[in-house]
Amino acid sequence: xxxxxxxxxxxxxxxxWTASNTDSKTPTFKKVYDVKEISxxxxxxxxxxxxxxxxxxxGSSGNLIKKHFVTIDIRTAYDPSKDHSLSVxxxxxxxxxxxxIVEEIERxxxxxxxxxxxxxxxxxxxxxxxxxSDKRKxxxxxxxxxxxxxxxx
Length: 153
Prior knowledge:
alpha+beta
């Protein structure tokens, strides 16, 4: 069976997202290789992609354990002064909005750490989170790495 770790992460985030935690905006969730072009003027994006996999045998039992590394790429150009869907003008900056998206991702990972979805048994933060924002361009970006554990393969 082929395991699609980026799609499992995308599906988990999409299913468990609470828009009220992110300024009442739900991002578009996609695997990065399914997206030709994005328009940040109309939506926030959460893109997922493979960043590595470590297969190894588990001791004397000989069972194979795979550690899948997935990068969650958060992109937004949130500007409340240009968001006409808001009934009251927001004072939240684009960078604060991006941080709320990161916090929502962390909330979901914490809540579903032991059961992220079949065939994966665990999801946890891995390595580091990098803020790649460019305030001059009004683009706010963060890449967040997670590791999924797959056993019984």
